[in-house]
Amino acid sequence: MHRQSPWRTLAMLLMLLTGVLTAQAQPFTPTPERPAALAEADRAFLNGDYEAALAGYTQAAASPDVACDAAFSVGRVYLRLERYAEADATFTQQINACGASFRALALRGDARQQNGDDAGAQADYEAALAAQPGIIDSYLYERIGAVNPDASVLYLRLAAEAGREPQGEFALRNELAQIYLLISRPDEAFIQYDAMLSRELLSPTDQARDVAAIEVEAAELEISLGNADAGYARLQRVISDYTNTAAAFDALILLVNAQQPVDLLTRMRINVANENYTPVVGVLTDVLASPDETVVPELYLLLGRSQRALGDPVTALATFQQARDRYPSDPVASQAALEQAQTYVDAGDVANGIVVYQQIAQVYPQSPEAPEALLTAARLLREQGDTTGAIAQYEQLGAVYPGSDQAEQGLFEAARLLQAAGDTNRAAELYGRSGSSHGLLWQGKLLQALGDNGGASAAWGAAVNADPGTFFSQRACALLNNIPPYEPSANIRLSEPTADDISAATNWVGQTFGVQASAALSPELASNPLLVRGTELWALGWRREANAEFIALHRQFRLDAPAMFQLASYYRGIGAYRMSIIAAVRVYVLSGQPLPAVPSYIARMAFPIYYADLVLPAAQEYDLDPLYVASLIRQESTYDATAVSIADARGLMQLIPSTAADVAGRLGLADYALSDLFRPTVNVAMGSYYLASTRDFLDGDVVGALLGYNAGPGRAAQWTAAAGGDIDLLYEIIPFEETQLYLDITYENFGVYRYLYGDGMPDCMFTVAPLATPTPASG
Fold it and tell me: Is residue 662 a contact partner of residue 635, using CB atoms and an 8 Å limit?
């Protein structure tokens, strides 16, 4: 096993302990344009056609002007092909002939690490650190630690201190803390705990969970070392600030076992949140047997929920009634009534549950629970087969709480029942009363069926404006303009942005946001450590790490539209397509303007067609509209060729391995390997074939093909057969919210793509910007 020299270990350790080793942001230097002789090979490399890239770079290497660049690129191709010995040899030849550049050293280290040459890998990583210090030191130290286990703690510490995006630093410090505990270095573990608890290391979604867990670990360590007061103080912070986390339950147990004071309400809340009901019943039954004026009303709710969960609905009902009787004017009364109704339903007594739900609106008409109670009562009546009673209840909800979300939904559900019963006129009336674009869309369809074309047009016009930008608003617009779903374009308009396009977009950003705008990176952005590190990682092909840096950068500038405009342009230039899309969409969202008002340069970055040289031929081969394919890719992967979903779908068109293996067999791809799904040239061909085969299985139904792509051809066949070619009815038939959302987004995407690149779409399809940036599979 390779060991670094003792003097180097000692020197680095001394620097570490004195705080010398910290990564500094370096001024950003743009990557120079690639020579024209390498352009075709670069395109093949981007597309994942590594054989063509290898041939192109090898041929270019004969030209002295580009020999060094070409040799370096040959090494990159061998890395992608996982031919690590050849990559090592190629980088060695390139370094000997052209000099030891940072990137060549780093990538040769990568090749050697993958090939099992740990000593060679460490030497290269160390040389890369010396060649370009202060940029991605953290990532190189981490790699050195992986190839030198004997010094892994040292290098993990160096990696944590050297600077990287916050979430990655948190993970490193957490790992380091666990190691320090294992080797009995609690003082060092505390240093890591305190660093991890810094709020800026955590995203908002992870903060509560992770901070609470770390605080509990730190508290247990302090207590074990005799610092009990400090440990208990940490635990008290957890139960106070992070009550709903699993760690709060651990903290509570530690405090109670140590006989530390914890207020009753907090104890009960944490137990119920963690489904630890028995102690809640044991404690609160006694406390509430003779309540005094200091009793918090919420305790009754916690006791009743625990009794119900433990299978005692009768006692739970009585407890909830006590809360209603004792605190008739407190918000807890209506909450207790809602719990009573739910308890009846859970116990199988639906009739009494309905009665209590109805009483809530009568007894507590101003409570937040009242509209929801009436909606639930109506739905229960419907489930019990009492359609007449359900419709009456829905109508009462609409009359008593007009304009509420519950009334809107209830009136729509009532109209669906009336439509199913054949009462078209009343159904149309209630669809209209709902006031939503969803309801107004259906009102128009029913009026059209009744021969009232004028009324139908008026309803669809109202739908366009009721909930602008939604699927139903867009569908109403399409019906007004007689545009079939996913209608292909006769002409596809593809072009690279011109200087005038970029100038117009820059002026628009300046006017819209009241700033002096530029498409070029500002000095602040260009020198931002996150961008500097991310750029270097991206250039090395270490995309997962690069994306983490870029995402952290977006958190810093997410409300700064001019900065996001610059980043969108910059990412597009380096091929970080997913990041460019997300940044461009942020500009679009922050503007609050409809798509037709957004300059084409920005709109096309938000909804791009990358890999057009792959998409267009594949679409033609399988008789698919290329805009249909391009919009699907945006939804599936946001044009991230390395994307991997939670379900293990991979690549641009997000093929699941089992599906991909089947497609490879059908296409006769004898040399197919799972890693090929990350090669766009393979993924687009396979994904297009699968999409076309699903369409053919569904007798040419392009809407059903999308649903089959998402949920499976068998399910799609059932749904499309029941819908009879009506996309709006199809939406209602789909039983899965995820698949409904998929239909919604792909429909919107296609409309945008047809507007930007095809035969156009009416402006009413795009009344407002989308509400959120895309969230594709993560890679």
Answer: no
The token duo for 72 is 């370096």
Q: Is 385 exposed, middle or buried, given 0-12, 13-18 or 19+ CB atoms closer than 10 A?
A: exposed
Task: Return the C-alpha torsion angle 616, 619, 623, 628, nearest 10.
Answer: -100
Q: Which residues pair with 506 in a beta bridge?
A: none
Angle, helices 437-449 vs 424-434, to 10°: value is 150
- pLDDT surpasses 70 at 27: no
Alpha-helical (H) ranges within 607-669 are 612-621, 626-637, 657-667
Q: What is the pLDDT of residues 309-367, one digit of tens each?
A: 999 999 999 999 999 999 999 999 999 999 999 999 999 999 999 999 999 999 999 99
Of 314, 313, 307, 363, nearest to 337 by C-alpha is 363
pTM of the shown model? 0.90
Q: Which two tokens stand for residue 758?
A: 């095809």
* DSSP three-state, residue 655: strand
> What are 372's two structure tokens?
């929801």
Catalytic annotation, pick one of 372, 545, 549, 636: 636
Shortest CA distance to 373 belongs to which of 333, 342, 411? 342
* Cβ 268 vs Cβ 299: under 8 Å: yes
Residue-wise pLDDT tens digits, 74-106: 999 999 999 999 999 999 999 999 999 999 999
Instruction: State the pLDDT at residue 650.
Output: 97
Q: How far apart are CA 218 and CA 195, in angstroms?
A: 12
Do 586 and 565 contact (CB within 8 A), yes or no? no
> For residues 177 and 196, is the Cβ–Cβ distance under 8 A?
yes
Whether the pLDDT of residue 10 is over 70: the answer is: no
Listed residue (332, 377, 388, 324) closest to 354, CA to CA: 377
Q: What Cα–Cα distance (Å) separates residue 448 from each residue in 364, 442, 451? A: 41, 10, 5
636 catalytic per annotation: yes
**How far from the centroid of its chain's Cα atoms is residue 201's Cα?**
19
Q: pLDDT value at position 628?
A: 97
Dihedral angle of Cα 380, 386, 392, 396, to the nearest 10 degrees: -10
CA–CA distance, 388 with 405 (Å, rounded to integer) = 22
Look up residue 421 and give its DSSP letter.
Answer: T
